[in-house]
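Materials and Methods. Structural model of MarR family transcriptional regulator. The 72-residue sequence of MarR family transcriptional regulator from Heyndrickxia acidicola was retrieved and submitted for structure prediction as follows.
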Amino acid sequence: MDKEKLYKQVHGMIISSTKEPKYSAISTVKVADLLNEEIDVVEHTLQELVEEGRLKKSRLNDPPNYEIYLLP
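The predicted structure was written out as tokens:
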């Protein structure tokens, strides 16, 4: 999977968020569908981006406790 293409997609989703601080709950199913990729590949590539420090991953404290992605 093209890591840069995924990063640009997720980056755009976070930047367009109206929440403060800027974050987005990413649906890997939706992203996989948009990019015509397998869900497992998208999840793995997102994890690589987190490990590289290009994205931060967290979990909301309040229900529904979504996993969220932020820009560092």
